[in-house]
Amino acid sequence: MFRNREDAALRLAQKLRDRPLRDPLVLAIPRGGVVTGAVLARELGAELDVVLSRKLRAPNQPELALGAVSETGDVYLNRFHEEPPDWFNDYLAGERRYQLAEIARRKQLFRSIRPAAPIKGRSVLVTDDGIATGSTMIAALKTVRSQEPYELIVAVPVAAPERLREVRRHCDDVVCLLAVEDFWAVGQFYKDFSPVEDEEAAEIFRSWAAASSREEAGVSQR
Length: 222
What we know:
Helices cover 41% and strands 22% of the residues. By secondary structure, it is an alpha/beta fold. It has a single domain, classed as 3-Layer(aba) Sandwich (Rossmann fold). A hairpin with a 2-residue loop joins strand 3 and strand 4. Helix 1 packs parallel to helix 2 (32-44). It starts with a helix and ends with a helix. The model has no long low-confidence stretch (mean pLDDT 93).
């Protein structure tokens, strides 16, 4: 059990601290992942940025993920036990448009703070506060992989084991502290799993960007 996202990220950083990384970049999936990502970036001496993907919600069950859409518009769908009904494609197209509009809004928010970090040739760690279905993580990984990182690592505090196996197919390595069979929600593994709003995530990112700029200015003056 983790006290909160910061505690989970500190423990995760301990697992990664001695790993050799090439010009490391931490990519956080907003919103909760930005909390985790900021701690990882600080502890590992890495750059911090965000990668945007959004869950595609099931009709009348918004907590249930059909899959996810990436910021490039690509869709990843979870496997279905039955053939989707006739109306499914129309519903999915509408949900995709809605989530892409949300991604565009968040992109404007975060990119007003700092432009996208280069990915090619770098050790990239994609993080979130946990993995339930894995769909948003996989959609994010597909986006990052297309930009030719040196290595692509998933770093998360907790995950559903079955979905973690699927995630492994889309990256080079996975670092996960807890993979528990009795898994029903990411929040069950946190004492404090308070919601993270967009502006809170943006403020964390803004604070990191400001601190990074001050550090870079100090280095250039030496």
